[in-house]
Structure formats: structure tokens, C-alpha cells
Write a structure and sequence with these properties.
The complex is a heterodimer.
Chain A lengths: L1 H16 L5 H6 L5 E12 L2 E13 L4 E5 L6 H9 L8 E8 L2 E2 L5 H7 L4 E4 L3 H4 L6 H10 L6 H14 L5 H4 L9 H13 L5 E5 L7 H18 L2 E6 L2 H7 L2 E6 L2 E7 H6 L4 H8 L53 E4 L2 E3 L5 H12 L4
Parallel strand pairs in A: 3-8, 3-9, 6-7, 7-8
Antiparallel strand pairs in A: 1-2, 1-4, 4-5, 9-10, 10-12, 11-12
Helix pairs in contact in A: 6-7, 6-9, 7-9, 9-10
Chain B lengths: L1 H28 L15 H11 L5 H14 L1 E3 L3 H6 L5 E3 L6 E2 L4 E2 H36 L4 H15 L2 H15 L15 H35 L2 H8 L4 H29 L3 H6 L5 H10 L3 H29 L8
Antiparallel strand pairs in B: 1-2, 3-4
Helix pairs in contact in B: 1-13, 5-6, 5-8, 5-10, 5-12, 6-8, 7-8, 8-10, 9-10, 10-13, 12-13
The chains are: A alpha/beta, B mainly alpha.
């Protein structure tokens, strides 16, 4: 215990001197294209207040990709819907700031928001079959997305849409234009969905688990496609996923969410080389690896996601954490702060940073 | 599509044959002598015997049924008995195909009766249909979009009342207070549309409202439920994320999808009503098909009962067919295959 005490002190010291918290990163760069600051999304229900997102901050530059990772119910999708303003008119209470190119999306009028949606920011959903309207052809749905933001004649719109369908890799776009979603395969449907999202060259593209419903080969194609299109359009992408493989493939920055909070936020290489939160370790251990010969069982993260109504006291992850013994202070009393463990690498854990590095190197890394 | 239609029409014919056959069988299974209903107070055995022959009741049930089916296809002449026709050629009544039969109590062919009653029933049904679709679907949409708020509660409350109060009660209240006491509207008396469209509508307003009440109530609930369901679909979220306007989302995306089951229900309800709105017609003494049906049962008028059962079931079966075909046009996922 005496060895683990010292670094613990240094963390506290850092905290008290104010050299801390990821927000310092955003504060120093107010000109970021997208900046989410202290976002809360709460749903009042009969059973109590569901704190789906509780104090989330991150930022994103054009042309880069942020991966948001976490298990079901960690608040990933709720965050993306909040950015798109899709909680408006529902019971959800959204507070904080969402700055898109100098405009606070939580303060703009409904009409301004509508003119941004599908135009400057667009979204791709998880299940393309249920997300496309079953009664309209793919062409009609893309034309609609185009014409709501751009004045364009029917024939111009048609040409533009056929061109887009071709660009997202749909063969025979001219013929496919007149087909209905149910006549498309899963991968083609998701391509059409991506085409629809990109039709107005959005600067921000939010992809909510776009590859979850697809098989692996199609997943890879879709990720390639998104990367190519990002290179072409220079959009900022938020990739929401529970698959760290997808993140490694496409993201520049990664934000790991747990129980509606950010537990680790880092550049993608840093996150994979020096993951700094026990939950991230858990996610990495539960990921299948093709480059390992060892035929070991995957290790799931024990337990269930936390209740978002009665969040466990202290660190939300503590009931499931296999490493809390290394913490110098009780994990179930006060909540750890999101602190900068390394340059541009924040995490939220009571275990002192050097100790975490040590535990990771000795206990987690060998099994990965 | 063509083969689908052929197959479905064939099944319609089979179904109608089965339905009329069952009606015949049921009728002859009852311990009632139909002939005794054909001659009035001064009945003598001789008249009864004559009527029996004239109507063909002297023959076995299956022969009577066979003649009925044949009459449907090629028409037939009354009296049924060839000897009677030869003896009294002046009494011959021709009933052209599709001959539905001859009513001894009305002394006319059923075709003629239906010909008189049918415009009345259609007028009542179509007017009420338009009214309840506007009120019911409109109310349902408003309720769904204001779910849980006061407009929703008021509309759902009214629908509950409309659904619970019996048609004859609404009809009698309207007749008593609106038509008789206040004199705001005439006591319904059918005026053909071709004669005077204004009077036609003016006279039918009360029956329309009466009939529309109960249907509007159920369509409010139906529309509200389907609208709430579709508005929570993923594709509505997509439509919102595309930046479409509120009304475009509600009508082009929400209602378009919710309409499919509503159209199904509407087609079947209208089909059922074209065969006559029994209670409404009775309350307002409008002699439509429903009125004929009721009097034929009280008079034990077999040919009329069979004809009415057939007409009503034909409308329902055809409405089903039309709804199924319409599905192929409404929902692109549906393909009609034989």
C-alpha cells in the first residue's frame, strides 16, 4: 500500500494545482469545428431520473474522426441524437453546450436546427432497413434529402442522386434508383443510407454503429467507403460503436463511455498502446484477435452495465472493476475526476497513473 | 396479377355458393312452414297449395337451391310451376339474370326490391363513410400528435363516448331533438341524388351523423394507435435527421405508413355497410337493404333472406378482395402472386 500511496498523492496534487481536466484542452482551442461541453441528457421517468449522458465533453476537427466506444446503454447513441437535436420535443432534458462552427446547437431555433440537419450535419443509423422508409424508393428518399436543402430541378436532382449512389459503390445506380429498400441487400442499404447522409456534403457526419447489422466483409467495405468519402469531402466524423476494431480502423481520437460518462479520452494510438482505464482494458480483453495463436477464451467484462437511475456511488465502474484493490482510496465513495494522465490522454480512475501503467503492463497486456 | 385476380374471383364464387347453400339448409332445418307466411288472413288450404306450387316450395330443398343458382346465372320465370305458367300466362313474372328470387310477401321480384333499396343504402353508406373518415382519421392524427396533452384527452374521451353509445340511441336523440323538436333538419325522407342533390344531402345528414358516430370513434382510436406507432419508427427519426419540415414528416412519412392498416379497415367497413345499415335505416325508416333484410326475417320470406345474405356477404368478400388488391398498390413490399 505504501508504494501505491505516493503516485496517488501526485495525482491529487495535480488536481489541486489546477493542471487538469480534459476541458483545459477544449478551452485552449476554442476554434474547434465541433465542441461538446459538459453535455447532460436526462430522461425523467416514473422510476426516477435516467442520467443517460452526464457531463460529457469532447471536440472534433474537420477531416478527423472521433470514435465513441462503450457497451449498450453507455450513452453513445443518446449523445449523437443530442448533437442532431433529435431529443427536441421529447421528454429528454438536454443541458450543456454543443458548438458547431461557432453556433450553440442547444440554443438555435427549431427552424435553424432543421436547416442544419441533413445539410451541415448528417447521421447514419444502425439498422438501414428500419431507418429507410419502406414505401418510397431509394431515389425518392435521396432526392427528398437533397431538395429540402438545395433548390434543384427534378432532373438535376435525379442526376445528382444517381451520381451519389454510384459514388457510394452501388452498382447500376440508374436502375437501383427506382428500387425500394426491401429490394436492397443489407450492405447496399447501408451504402444508400450513407449516400443519403452525404448528399449535401455535410461537414459533420455522425455514424451510429453503421456496421453492426452487417457481416464482416461488408463492414470492411463500408469502413473503407467512409474513409474514402472523408478524404473526398473533408467531413468530421463521429463513429459510434461498441467495436474497438472499427475504432482502430477509422478513428483519430477515441472516447470511451461508461454509464453516461467519459472514462477515457485519447488519440487512437495512445489508447491502444497505453490504455489507461480498467474498463478500457476490459473492452480490449473481450475483443477477438486474429494475430494471436493462443486459443484462449475471450474475457468478458464481468457484471452488467450500471443503472442510469441509481448510478453506483463513487466510480460508476467500481462494482465491476477487477483492479480496485490497487486504488489508494475507496472507489465507492467519491467519483474520480477526468484527469490528464498523459499529454492529450485523459482518464477517470482513482488508481494513480504510474500504478495503472504497471498493472496494465503486468496483468493485462500479456493476456491481450 | 391477372392469375391472382382469377384465383381470387373463383374463390369468391365458391364462397358465395357455400354461403347461400348454408342459408338454404338452415332455413329448411327450422320447424316453420314458409307457405303459411305467404297467404294472409283469409287463408284456405287451396290457396296455400297454390302458393306452394307457385313458389316451388313443393319440391325438395336441393332442387329449390339448384333453381335459385340457375336463376342467378340465366334468370327465371315465376310462378315456378310449369303447369301454373301454362294455365295463367298473364301471371308470369320474368326475373332477369342475376335473378335473386321472388318475394311472395311483397309480390315482386327481389331484383326490383333491391333496385329500389340499393341507392338508399349506398347513399347512407358513402356519406357516412366520408364523414367518419374525415372526423375519425383527422381526430386520430390530432390526438396522436398531442399524445397525453389535453387535445388528446378530449378526443379520446369523445371517442369513448361515441363508441359506447348505441347507434339507435344517437339516432333517436338526433331525430327527436334536431329534426322533430328543433326542426333544424328534415325527418329523413330519401330524395334521389339525380333528382335534387341538395335535398338528397339535406335529408341524409342525420343518418350520416348517426352512422358516422360509432365508426368515427373507432377510427380515432385506430388512427391514433397507428400514428403513434409509426411516428416512433426509425424512418421517422431518419426523416427528422434529413432536416425535413414537421408537416412533411407527419404526412408524407408518418401518415403514409399509418394509412395502410386504416385503409384496410375502411374498405372492409364500407363493404359491410353497402349491404345495408340495419339499425340506422330502421331508426329513420329509410327503406334500404338493411330495412328489407329485417322485414324479410320477421316475415320468414325465404327468398329475400337468401338474397340479402348473399348480397351482404358478396359485398364483404369483394371488399376483402379490393383491399387485398389495393395493398399491392399501397405497399411496395406486397406483390400479388397467384
Amino acid at each position: 500500500m505504501s508504494t501505491s500511496n505516493e503516485p496517488g498523492l501526485s495525482a491529487e496534487l495535480l488536481e489541486s494545482t489546477g493542471v487538469r481536466v480534459n476541458r483545459s484542452r477544449t478551452d485552449s482551442a476554442p476554434d474547434k469545428f465541433l465542441r461538446v461541453n459538459d453535455l447532460h441528457v436526462h430522461f425523467p421517468t416514473d422510476d426516477g431520473l435516467v442520467k443517460a449522458v452526464d457531463g460529457l465533453s469532447f471536440d472534433l476537427e474537420k477531416g478527423t474522426t472521433l470514435g465513441i466506444v462503450g457497451e449498450s446503454g453507455s450513452g453513445k447513441s443518446v449523445t449523437s441524437l443530442a448533437i442532431m437535436g433529435l431529443h427536441r420535443g421529447t421528454r429528454a432534458k438536454v443541458t450543456g453546450e454543443i458548438w458547431l462552427d461557432g453556433e450553440d446547437l442547444l440554443k438555435v431555433s427549431d427552424e435553424e436546427l432543421r436547416s442544419l440537419r441533413g445539410n451541415r450535419m448528417a447521421m447514419i443509423f444502425q439498422d438501414p432497413l428500419s431507418s429507410l422508409h419502406p414505401y418510397y424508393t431509394i431515389g425518392q428518399q435521396l432526392v427528398e434529402a437533397l431538395q429540402v436543402h438545395q433548390k434543384m430541378s427534378k432532373s438535376q436532382a435525379h442526376t445528382h442522386v444517381v451520381d451519389m449512389l454510384g459514388r457510394v459503390g452501388i452498382p447500376n445506380p440508374d436502375r437501383r434508383y427506382d428500387q425500394y429498400p426491401h429490394e436492397f441487400s443489407g450492405g447496399m442499404r447501408q451504402r444508400a443510407m450513407i449516400g443519403m447522409a452525404l448528399i449535401n456534403n455535410p461537414e459533420l457526419l455522425i455514424a451510429d454503429e453503421p456496421t453492426t447489422a452487417l457481416d464482416v466483409t461488408v463492414q470492411a467495405q463500408i469502413l473503407d467507403l467512409m474513409r474514402d468519402l472523408q478524404a473526398e469531402f473533408g467531413s468530421a466524423i463521429i463513429m459510434i460503436t461498441h467495436d474497438l476494431g472499427v475504432v482502430a480502423e477509422i478513428a483519430n481520437d477515441v472516447l470511451v463511455m461508461y454509464g453516461g460518462r467519459c472514462v477515457e479520452y485519447a488519440e487512437v494510438d495512445d489508447l491502444f498502446h497505453q490504455p489507461d482505464h480498467p474498463y478500457t482494458w476490459g473492452l480490449l480483453s473481450s475483443m477477438p484477435r486474429l494475430d494471436r495463436v493462443k486459443l484462449e477464451r475471450l474475457v468478458p467484462v464481468a457484471g452488467n452495465p450500471p443503472s442510469l437511475i441509481n448510478v453506483p456511488p463513487g466510480c460508476a465502474f467500481n462494482p465491476r472493476c477487477a483492479f480496485k484493490e490497487f486504488s489508494p482510496r475507496p472507489c465507492n465513495v467519491d467519483e474520480p475526476q477526468l484527469l490528464e494522465s498523459y499529454p492529450k490522454h485523459d482518464s477517470r480512475c482513482h488508481i494513480p497513473v504510474p500504478k495503472r501503467a504497471e498493472v496494465f503492463a503486468e496483468r493485462v497486456a500479456p493476456k491481450l | 396479377m391477372f392469375y391472382y385476380l382469377v384465383r381470387r374471383l373463383a374463390s369468391v364464387v365458391v364462397m358465395l355458393v357455400l354461403i347461400t347453400g348454408t342459408t338454404y339448409a338452415l332455413f329448411f332445418a327450422t320447424p316453420i312452414d314458409p307457405v303459411s307466411y305467404t297467404c294472409g288472413r283469409n287463408c284456405t288450404p287451396a290457396i296455400k297449395e297454390g302458393n306452394k306450387k307457385a313458389l316451388g316450395y313443393d319440391q325438395p330443398a336441393y332442387i329449390q337451391y339448384g333453381k335459385f343458382l340457375k336463376g342467378l346465372v340465366v334468370g327465371r320465370d315465376y310462378p315456378d310451376n310449369a303447369q301454373l305458367r301454362a294455365d295463367h300466362p298473364e301471371q308470369i313474372v320474368h326475373c332477369p339474370a342475376p335473378c335473386l328470387g321472388y318475394s311472395p310477401t311483397q309480390s315482386r321480384t327481389i331484383n326490383a326490391m333491391v333496385g329500389d333499396a340499393w341507392p338508399i343504402s349506398i347513399s347512407i353508406a358513402i356519406g357516412a363513410f366520408v364523414l367518419w373518415m374525415i372526423v375519425g382519421v383527422g381526430g386520430g392524427i390530432i390526438a396522436a400528435l398531442n399524445r397525453g396533452k389535453w387535445p388528446d384527452r378530449i378526443i379520446v374521451g369523445l371517442a369513448l363516448i361515441g363508441f359506447s353509445v348505441p347507434t339507435f340511441f344517437i339516432g333517436l336523440v338526433l331525430l327527436t331533438f334536431v329534426a322533430i323538436k328543433a326542426g333544424l333538419l328534415p325527418i329523413p325522407n330519401y330524395v334521389p341524388f339525380t333528382e335534387n342533390p341538395f335535398e338528397w344531402a339535406h335529408n341524409l345528414v342525420l343518418p350520416w351523423i348517426t352512422l358516422a358516430c360509432i365508426f368515427a370513434a373507432s377510427y380515432v382510436r385506430l388512427t391514433r394507435a397507428y400514428m403513434i406507432e409509426t411516428m416512433s419508427e426509425d424512418y421517422i427519426r431518419t426523416a427528422m435527421s434529413k432536416g425535413l419540415g414537421k408537416w412533411r414528416i407527419i404526412f408524407r412519412h408518418g401518415l403514409r405508413a399509418a394509412l395502410t392498416p386504416i385503409i384496410t379497415a375502411a374498405g372492409l367497413d364500407l363493404g359491410g355497410l353497402l349491404g345495408g345499415a340495419i339499425i340506422t335505416e330502421s331508426v329513420f325508416s329509410l327503406h334500404g337493404l338493411g330495412f328489407i333484410a329485417v322485414s324479410s326475417v320477421t316475415n320468414m320470406d325465404l327468398p329475400v333472406i337468401v338474397a340479402m345474405v348473399m348480397i351482404v356477404s358478396a359485398f364483404i368478400v369483394l371488399a376483402n378482395l379490393i383491399v387485398d388488391i389495393a395493398y399491392g398498390f399501397i405497399d411496395p413490399r406486397v406483390k400479388l402472386v397467384a
